[in-house]
Amino acid sequence: MIEVTINPSKKKLTIPAGTLLLDVLKEAGIMITTPCGSKGNCGKCKVKVFPSYFELNTSEKTWLSEEEIKKGSRLACQYHLSQTTTVTVPSYILMDGERSVIRGKIKSHLLGNDFKPAQQIKKIYLQLDPPTLQNQCSDWTRIVKALEIQLKDCHRSWKVPIEILNRMPQLLRNNDFKITIALFHLKKPPSLKVVMVCAWHG
After folding, report:
1. Measuring CA to CA, how many Å separate 111 from each of 66, 107, 190?
2. Contact predicate 37/78, CB 8 Å
3. CA-CA to 99 of 20 to 30 Å: which in 34, 85, 164, 179?
4. Which of 28-37, 120-129, 157-166 has the lowest mean pLDDT?
5. Residue numbers of the domain that contains 25
6. Angle at Cα 106 formed by Cα 102 and Cα 108, nearest 5°?
7. What is the enclosing helix (H) or strand (E) of 11?
8. Do 194 and 113 share a structural domain?
9. Do you find a cis peptide bond into 190, omega within 30 degrees of 0?
10. Cβ pair 193, 168 in contact under 8 A
11. Residues 6+ apart with CB under 8 A from 70
12. CA atoms within 13 A of residue 199's CA, in its CB half-sphere
């Protein structure tokens, strides 16, 4: 038997060695998108595994870039666990029910348990220009500029949780720089706390 830790939920399971990673996630109650029916034909179930061991199979070599492989990415429907492992599941591959749980936790964290629906929450879709040699600003700067144009307001005080900021590069690049941003008003205007709750192809 081996122990598996699943982040960001920090769930821990003890499972038999050789278990398919996708089955482990299901056992933990974490449902991810698998459009190809778990056949390794779509590359949608990318997760990060540490330590990552075993050679990649044909499907993983097809769908994982060299950069993703270096960072420990594997396909959950193809990878079998054989030793104690930590798995990180990105929010953008979760099914709608799982996303709802994450959104609830984000709202609770930012607004407190006394959150009232009457408070203003905005969701804004952005289609950003990817970086070029002529335009090398940071991902966050790129998002802020696009938000200021849409909101017609460049005097906001922007804030973003560090865990969202850390996931931003992958979210953008896996979705052709098309994302949806949720804006939560803090109690002291004009501050906004900006939370990225989902990202998908537009």
Report:
1. 39, 6, 16
2. no
3. 85
4. 157-166
5. 2-89
6. 115
7. strand 11-15
8. yes
9. yes
10. no
11. none
12. 22
Q: How far apart are CA 144 and CA 184, in angstroms?
A: 15
Q: Tell me which amino acid residue 64 is.
A: L
* Whether residue 81 is found in the same domain as residue 125: no
Tokens for 61, please give them.
Answer: 């070599």
Single-letter amino acid, residue 99: R
pLDDT digits (tens, 9 = 90+) for 111-152: 455 545 444 567 788 888 888 888 888 888 888 888 888 877
Q: Which residue has the higher pLDDT, 25 or 115?
A: 25
Q: In this structure, what is the dihedral angle of CA atoms 139, 142, 148, 150, given to the nearest 10 degrees?
A: -100
User: Residues 105, 77: one domain?
Assistant: no
pLDDT band at residue 194 using 50, 70 and 90 as cut-offs: low
Domain boundary among 51, 66, 89: 89
Q: What is the CATH number of the domain that holds 23?
A: 3.10.20.30
